[in-house]
Amino acid sequence: MNRVVLDASVVLALLNNESGADRLTPDLLSNATSSTVNLAEVQTKLVSEGGRPDEAWEDTLSPIREAMPFTDEQARIAGSLVAQTSRLGLSLGDRACLALGIVLKAPIYTADKAWKNLKLGVRIHVIR
Question: Model pTM?
Answer without folding.
Answer: 0.95
